[in-house]
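Problem 12. The chain below contains 435 residues. Write out its predicted structure in token notation.
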Amino acid sequence: MAIDLRLPTDSIVHPDKDRFLNEDNPFEAMMSRFDRAAELLDLEPGIYRILRNPEKQLIVSVPVQLDSGDVEVFTGYRVVYNSSRGPSKGGIRFDMQVTLEEVKALAAWMTWKCAVVNLPFGGAKGGVICDPHKMSIGELERLTRRYTSGIMQLLGPDTDVPAPDVNTNERVMAWVMDTYSMRVGRTENAVVTGKPVEMGGSYGRREATGRGCMLVTREAMEHLGLPMQGATVAVQGFGNVGSVAARLLAREGCKIVAIGDRFGALYNAAGIDVDAAIAYVQEHRTLVDFPGAEAIDSETLLTLDVDVLLPAAMENVITTKVAPKIRAKVVCEGANGPTTAAADPILDSKGVFVIPDILANAGGVTVSYFEWVQDRMGYFWSEDVVNERLADIMTRSFRDVLQLATQHNVNMRTAAYMLSISRVATVHRLRGIYA
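Solution.
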């Protein structure tokens, strides 16, 4: 029996109508896509209710002694959304904008992301409300270790495996791994991914998300009959994901005409030297005043007349205000949730081919899976092998989603959700409910 998901006041689907209509609420935005896919799948009510709720939500206080001697208490979160297919997997972010709703949404996205590329993982996410740019290395280490101690009940290579995210990196993962290892009395390098190669990290992990974006963009361009050579690209967000994707797309023959970071954006119709921009950011920590391009505002970057737009920063940048102005033929979502649910039909009406986040940026978690596998067996692969296996999974997953989209006459986002939800639901049916 199909669930009627059309009425937003339905007590099961949308218990809070006003909250659902809030375009800025990431969890409800994500769940509106889930609802559409569940309706098309004719998902039974019991499975629907299970998949619409996170398994565990942990809120911890994180007291840290600052370099000044003062004690500050931060708030940290860890959400395990679903672990039916295997250990939950998801990053840890340090940012002032972290909220429980955001972490829940990101944990759910990780669940669907792992399923859409068919990894034996569930989804999780974590975060601490802080401004890491105003903290010393020592303060960040103490924050990381105390937060790790606070969420120890969830962590483990067979239960919940964190990774880097916004404002965290290999060094932070090394601190998490060491804290966990000291607590359990043995070195356990499989408890995190995205750590230094010297500690059991994988070659190719740092570039994996950006490389995955390049791979699915190439598949989309081929599907649409558009050449990569000379294709114009705008990249919003020039951190690890955006800079790597820009560099690899340039190597494929694309012309990167615009790049931007949280301080502003740059445009050059003749193309931007991506390698020079990366070197500039490494020295100055910003794109501001980078020579060879003119300054533009961030919304202008999003609405440029380009072949490919790659939003690779934060969520909710393509809203109902911005979507009508989008002129790109392809949007590859390098960030999590860059397009609001309310903006989706606007992009559809304009014929924009959207590669959804749960597929587009799954390269990172795919190589995290490779890292976890290598740690568990104690045998490590070359970077060429990692990249080859990543390409195989990303291209196969893109084609699986495209086939489903064509079969059901839906967009790529809905097809990706249908594929991932069906895989998670199947496992729940097979496992049953523990009583």
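Discussion. The radius of gyration is 21 Å. Students who got a different answer should revisit the alignment rule from Section 12.3.
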